Amino acid sequence: MMESIYKELESSQLFIGFNHEGIKELFKSVHYRTKNYSKNEIIAYEGDEIKELGIILSGEVYVEKVYVTGKVIKVKKLTKGELVGHASVFSDYNYYPCTIVAKNDLQILYIPQDKITDICLSSRQFLINFIRLISNQTVYLSNKLKFISYDTIRKKIVDYLLKEYKKQKTCKVIVSFSRKEMAEVFGVTRPALSNEMINMKNDGLIEYRDNIIEIKDLELLKIELGK
To answer: Which end of the chain, N or C, is surrounded by fewer C-beta atoms within 10 Å?
Structure first.
């Protein structure tokens, strides 16, 4: 059982620079637990206390912001190898800032807060990885806040395409989620998203088919955001 877990952990950004034996050595004195979840099961509610660091061994989760009006915005999708709760586990306010929901059947490995401290003190590489992931999360949340502040659907689409263009290094952007999921991430209805994409196509900005959106005029897209 443990050997298979070591293998799964090799895909996590938290263990960059570690091989199978290196991970095994780290876990010699670490108390951990694993938990399985079913599709749509709540993993943690916003405001729940964070006492452990979670590492996704299999499956995917949604990070959701639920408003008092009932509106739900999918902030982020986390997949195998990614962390749950790492940005706040050592915070003075160590509570989940969003609700965490299982997208499908999954398994998460949990390590207690004090054991994370022990591993950081015993391994410089693990400490570097952990700090990098927290820093990346800070940058992500800053960008997400800017994204949410955009006042039109078009600006949200453009912002997403420009980021993916930079990441994928191609004008033919592969979208990793469905139109329905895309609308949920953008905090808009699917028909509204589809209508705006049609408008952008008619304006000569993009072409799209299946899960590929092709940027037809990169400079015009940048102008849309004032870049």
So the answer is: N
